[in-house]
Amino acid sequence: MPEHIARFITISGRVQGVGFRPFVYRLAHQHRITGWVRNVDGTVEIHAEGEPAQLQRFSDDLLAEAPPLSAPGALAITDCTSEQAQEFSILDSAASSRAYLNDALSKKADAGSIHLPPDGFVCADCLAELHDPADRRYRYPFINCTQCGPRYTLITALPYDRPNTAMRGFALCVDCRREYENPHDRRFHAEPIACPACGPHLQFVSDDETHEGDEPALAAAVGALRAGKIVAVKGVGGYHLLCSATDDEAVATLRARKARPAKPLAVMFPNLDSLRDAVHVAPELESFLASPQRPIVLLPKRAGTNLSAGIAPGLADVGCLLPYSPLHALLLVDFGGPLVATSGNLSGEPVLTDSAEAQARLAHIADAFLHHDRPIVRPADDPVYRVIAGAPRPLRLGRGSAPLELELPAPLPEPVLALGSHMKNTLCLAWGARAVLSPHIGELDTPRSLDTLAQVAADLQRLYQVRATRLIVDRHSGYGTRRYARDSGLPLSEIWHHHAHASALAWEFPAIEKWIVFAWDGVGLGEDGSLWGGEAFTGVPGHWQHAASLRPFRLPGGDKAGREPWRAAAGLLWETAAAAPFAPEPLHRAWTHGLNSPPSSSAGRLFDAAAALCGTCTHASFEGEGPMRLEAQASMAPRVAGVELPLQRDAQGVWRTDWAPLLPMLGNTARPAVERAACFHRSLARALVEQAQKLREQSGIGAIGLTGGVFQNRMLAEAAIAQLEAAGFAVHLPRRVPVNDAGLSFGQVIEFLHR
To answer: How confident is the model over 4-47, as pLDDT tens digits?
Structure first.
């Protein structure tokens, strides 16, 4: 008689909320295995009985044929006692008895097996049903299955079961219950499962009318959009403000009401054909746009596009995305064209999620609201990517891409929560050898942003069942993160801003033993107390040596220079004893006496100054406007040579590039602004390569890393990469973690780990 044995299998990784248990059930029947499967916290446990060869094939296929949205880790397999199971079944989930991992457990490298699924797009099967008049979910805006639908934004607790989601208030009808309980059905334990008989519904509200029910509300919303109105629409992770993307007047009205005169607006297209008509998109990017995370991707505009010129004024790229929820799919199909889809928030704040709060706070912007009654537990803005050096690079993590779960190179001594930066804030919870990077929170200038930071911090720790015993913060004492740190009472570890940038980059390329890292951004507190931002370091995480920088200059007005590029331009001119006739004399006197004029070596502020001196942008309505417009101008210029910039070592042994020879060129109004902009970019790329060559001569290091928000600039990054590679360097730019301050919290963890 064939040998009959039993094995206990534990699978960690992303195995909940992705249809893993019904997959195991079907696989077990295929291989004639008996036993059971269940969820426990963030893992899947399997008791499997059968012949050894059957069990081996079953175990192999658990990984080889796993559901497409899953990301299972290695199997943990042990022999166990047979339960004489006669069939294979799916058991109810079992929750751990612990509220948080205790200190001893959290110090282990493998502690915490929970993995949260991000929000998913609407899959092809559900889309087919959505548009099938014979299907009972025809045109139902909340259709989903185990392979798609909201996850992170509706989970209230683990294990991931319906009572632990925002759907707990919607009792399943008989038909949905039958699907939910059938292991052979595509909706078996699809926790957000719903239908028109038992699920959430839409409501349209304006000053003039209210429509209850999906079809009346959808029709009213589409009618408002066609009439040039602005409609606030509740989506998966928050509200969007929608209007026609081809209607100049509607776009101008949205900008005026939101006080967003120039910041680019994202556009949602009905399909790829519509998108191709408006922008240039390579085939490999089409698959990325259509991937489960459905990101916003910055793509170059086509000449003659019918998109409103107000979508991205002064810029060459448009942020493009495809519908990712059934509600979006219906809206876009019914409207019949592209829609502006910008975050439903007040500038700089996290996206709004609550219907009553959205209606109150967006009443001065939106003409109407398309609400629904499925609660959003936590906000998740859309992720944003830009193609640089042939690969899409994340500029912002969000719905579909976060929480981003990452593996550390070694276990931490204790669980930590890194609080990131003041701008583009994200949080990073890390314990054992794991780290979780939160979705985008935003700028920490408002009480609501600080409240959201506290909510996300509490959520991450509760959901992952890890309590941080230490906070990691930037050394700048004025960051908004300091309020949360003060209120927590936890011990703090402080990390230098640009060391965190460098360490986040280094983590992505573990094979590199020694680095030259260029960390160029706006400003961050430097080791000498000045505002750095044009730095180069040699070394490795935990041991960075300041090796190169830019000639410092004093910023008149301090922080105001970030939104008023003319101030940086005045600082450069005054630093070289030149006149700045556009700057008021009292400001010059204050600068002369060192009043509110902190020294800075920031590459970002150098870009601001160049934008002002070229006449491109003297006053910025959003962070980075000057450099973005300058890059767009430079991309239109014929190939021009750069200006040679002097490079010499200062008294501390730091190589410093002098930007002074750029000023006559930038101020030469007889030369076209597009040429001056291009010359500026090429000059800085050339200066970076010269610094790299000096540092290689000193250290023998040939690996280059580029990090910091300045390297979101495609023209600069690609010019620097081309010249560095021609000079024999191996160049690395991040692909998983944002190069800007959105990746800083993770870099803080890496730097702390190695110190």
So the answer is: 899 999 998 888 778 888 899 989 999 999 999 998 877 899 99
Amino acid at 581: P
Query: Tens digit of pLDDT for each residue in 712-735?
Result: 999 999 999 999 999 999 999 999
Q: What type of residue sits at position 103?
A: D
Q: 424-463 burial string, b = 16+ CB within 10 Å, else e?
A: bbbbbbbbbbbbbbbbbbbbbebebbbebbeebbebbbeb
β-pairing verdict for 599-600 and 34-40: unpaired
- Helix-, strand-, coil-residue percentages of the chain, each rounded to 5: 35, 25, 45
Model pLDDT for residues 311-320, shown as the tens digit of each residue:
999 999 999 9
Name the 3-class secondary structure at 614.
Answer: coil
Mean pLDDT of the chain: 93
User: Which residues touch 21 (CB under 8 Å, ≥6 apart)?
Assistant: 37, 38, 39, 44, 90, 183, 188, 189
Report the alpha-carbon distance of residue 341 to residue 181 in Å, rounded.
37
- Contact status, residue 617 vs residue 625, Cβ threshold 8 Å: yes
Instruction: Say which amino acid occupies 14.
Output: R
SS3 395: strand
Strand partners, 234: 239
Contact assessment for residue 142 and residue 164, using Cβ atoms and an 8 Å cutoff: no
What are the tens digits of pLDDT across the range 543-553? 999 999 999 99
Q: What pLDDT was estimated at residue 95?
A: 55
Nearest to 270 by CA among 196, 330, 358, 346: 330
Does an H or E element contain 73, and which? strand 71-79
Question: HEC string of 140-170?
Answer: CCCCCECCECCCCCCECCCCCCHHHECCCCC
The mean per-residue pLDDT over the stretch 683-689 comes to 98
CA distances from 716 to 168, 520, 630, 743 (A): 50, 11, 11, 20
Residue 396's CB is within 10 A of a number of other CB atoms, namely 21
Rg, the chain, Cα only: 27
Q: Which residue has the higher pLDDT, 753 or 292?
A: 753
Determine the Cα–Cα distance for residues 343 and 345; give it in Å rounded to an integer.
6
Determine the Cα–Cα distance for residues 478 and 554; give it in Å rounded to an integer. 19
d(CA 673, CA 679): 10
What whole-number distance in Å separates Cα of residue 676 and Cα of residue 664? 10
Burial environment of residue 29 by CB neighbours within 10 A (0 to 12, 13 to 18, 19 or more) = middle
Q: In what order do the strands lie in the sheet with 428-431?
A: 404-407, 434-437, 428-431, 416-418, 470-474, 492-495
